[in-house]
Amino acid sequence: MNARKNFTPPTGKTRFPIPSALAIAVTAVLSGIAIPAQSATGERDDSTIVVEARDADAVQGLVAGGMSARSSSTGLLGKKDVMDTPFNVSNMTSSFIENKQAQTLGQVVAHDASVRVSSSQGGLLDSYYIRGFPLNEGNLSDIAMNGVYGVAPNYQLMTDYIERVEVLKGPSALLYGLSPNSSVGGVINAVTKRPTTVGNLTRLTTSWQSDSQLTQHADISRVYALDNNNLLGVRFNGNYGYGDTVWDGSDKRTQVGSLGLDFSSERFRATLDLITQHLKTRAPSRPYSFAQGVTVPDAPDGNNNISQPWGFWHSKDQSVLLHTEYDLADNVTWFTDLGGSSAHVSRLSEQVPLVTNNNGDVSSDVRNFRFTTSRYTLATGVRADVETGSVTHKLSAQTSYYRDRQASANVRGTTINSNIYNPVSSPAQNIAAPPSVYKRSSTALSGIALADTLGFWNDALQVTGGLRYQQINSDNFAAPDGGMRSSNDKSAITPMLGVIVKPWQHVSLYANYIEGLSKGDVVSDTRASNYGQVLSPYKSKQYEAGVKVDALGTISTLSVFQITKPSGALANGPGSEFIEANEQRNRGIELDVVGSPLEDLRLTGGVMLLDAELTKSVTPGAQGKRAPGTSRFQANAGVEYDLPFLRDLTLNANVTHNGKQNVNTINTQSIPSWTTVDFGARYKTRIYSAPTTFRADVLNAFDRNYWSGVTSFSTVSQGTPRTLMLSVAVDF
Fold it and tell me: What percent of the chain is helix, strand and coil (3-state, nearest 5)?
């Protein structure tokens, strides 16, 4: 977004607890009390004030009838038009999210062919694969929010507060820094909703989803004109939902509140986001693991759920992020980000159920868990546009600091047995909750980054280069005494080089070399000769080239890439050194298309061909095998069509395909390929002059039973069964 199009509030608002701040804001917004404008003499002026539209989608330009946008965040480099970005990027706008009736971030990014969700939609969290590498696996979120790590809700993001989802594919250490979980396949950035001044917005949406989930959502936005052409914007989103899910014996309750405050003056802009999110799920679905020698059986009925009805998951997330910008000069902007988040989880449920034989019998370890996670982030920097002769420079400099702390405890119950085809109900286990939690880990990531984009011949040639210095301090603690178990204090420098050539107006040829970082291991294997040693950060390396074409109402990107990612292992068994001994190499081709080639027709889709090989492995029989969780072919195709004889009625369809995936490194266990088809329709009308939109969608319309994804630690998730979604949205 253009820096001059943002705005926000006094920083003192952060002193309020998030629920209190939300309550105060909702009262103010609903009251409809506007701040009167004043004339140049200071007298009140009751005349109507017309304000330029500043919502994110309007500012950044839309394509494909509003389903995608021309520009995306690139971290350190700021906002860039897709044709001026030397990476493969995609984004999904608020219109796309609303029309898909997506409730979670995972349901949004699943429409990108380079991204796959490896977790179950009925589970505890969303985890992903991008370009064949895992992301968001664990108790620290790898999702960026407004370009910043450490702020987004920790386990699952709801779409109530999301304006846009941006996906940058490939390693991104220079652009975003080291991610909390050391992911290297790409970055998912959730952009929060901002106040819109196209007009006051008061939208109430009622949704129903099978089996019986009913959700009410309010989206309210106001912008007020202050003195001296300053603007104050307020946007509130609230959600309450409850009911049975499509998984047998499971129900879910959601309570979400978010507040976006914007302030804008001539040279200063600020945005403040506050989010509170409570999720409660009874009998959440769980992923499966498979005993050695067991062939992965056929997937059970999609509605089957072996989780016990007395099991539960309760999570409470709170997030805050303050972003400010100040124009030091017409071509120099100073920016800061300050924020953090907390997550509290209580869970009584099975651990990962183990399938013990080919008949689908399952053994599950039941535990009562408590987790707490706290994260903080601070970044500040400068962006400047300068010229040296005929060459333009877009300079960026940033220093950043991130810190997280994790604590947990659990009490073990009794093992229970069941079957994936015929789930067995077991008596409720009265397992006491842990009396307290113990500090498990603490990590601090700090760094300095510099980059410059040089433009030649009116940007027909653009060259971007940069470096990031990254410091990693990571401590692990033993429970329950809290004593230091291991510590990691290392640093690394990662470069990036990108080139764009525009031989014609609507064509961009691009290439890049960029690196990703993963935390080096603290050798904790007592069999290693270097036990206790701290390894340097692992460096992943990407080479990518591609072409982008903006023509015939569509934007298409064709890219080829290679990413190598090392990891540590015992080099030659017990008594040898634990070193950088394993390597995974992913080579791929991607084609992404989004656009509206005809007035009434909108297309989204893509394919990815991937060769993911374990090029180095100390595991016997693994070297040369396909990496777990990856498929050779992934594809998505989506179409929307406005009926010519009833222009307010739109039909849509989506097809998702995923190839065969191996479960283990030696490729003796696998899940088959799968394809799902979704159908939907929406109808726009007016009821008593109020714009109203009806939506209906059927996901997995043919009710395919399938295993949907594999994680990097070889667990397998069950695919979502046929699901009916209905909603009505009314603008007042």
Answer: 10, 55, 35
Partner residues linked to 371 by β-bridges: 345, 408
Say what the pLDDT of residue 60 is: 52
Could you tell me if 640 and 650 are in contact, meaning their C-beta atoms sit under 8 angstroms apart?
Answer: yes
CB atoms within 10 A of CB 506: 12
Query: Who contacts 214 (Cβ-Cβ below 8 Å, separation ≥6)?
Result: 206, 207, 208, 241, 242, 243
Average pLDDT, the chain: 91
pLDDT of residue 164: 96
pLDDT digits (tens, 9 = 90+) for 103-150: 999 999 999 999 999 999 888 889 999 999 999 998 899 999 999 999
Cβ neighbors of 7 (< 8 A, separation 6 or more) are 54, 195, 231, 232, 233, 262, 263, 264, 265, 269, 270, 271
Tens-place pLDDT, residues 671-694: 999 999 999 999 999 999 999 999
10 Å CB burial of residue 647 (0-12, 13-18, 19+) is: exposed
**Hey, what amino acid is at 154?**
N
DSSP string, 177-239: -S-TT---SEEEEEEEP----SS-EEEEEEEEETTTEEEEEEEEEEEEE-GGG-EEEEEEEEE
pLDDT value for 232: 96
Rounded CA Rg of the chain: 25
Q: Which domains does the chain have, with CATH numbers?
A: 3-301+310-420+433-731 (2.40.170.20)
How many Cβ atoms sit within 10 Å of the Cβ of residue 667? Answer: 16
**Local structure of 60: helix, strand or coil:** helix
CB 376 within 8 A of CB 443: no
Residues facing 387 on adjacent strands: 392
- pLDDT, tens digit, 9 for 90 and up, residues 645-668: 998 999 999 999 999 999 999 999
Report, as an integer, the average pLDDT of 395-414. 96
pLDDT at residue 478, as a whole number: 78
Cβ of 439: how many Cβ atoms within 10 Å? 17
Choose among 286, 310, 303: nearest CA to 421. Answer: 303
CA dihedral 358, 362, 363, 368 (to 10 degrees): 150
Query: Residue 558, Cα to own-chain centre: how many angstroms?
Result: 23
pLDDT at 48: 33
Question: Which amino acid would we find at residue 97?
Answer: I
User: Are the CB atoms for 546 and 557 separated by under 8 Å?
Assistant: yes
The total number of residues written for the chain in this structure: 732
| pTM of the model as a whole | 0.91
Q: Exposed e or buried b for every residue in 442-472, given b needs 16+ CB within 10 A? A: bbbbbbebbbbbbbeeeeeebbbbbebebbb
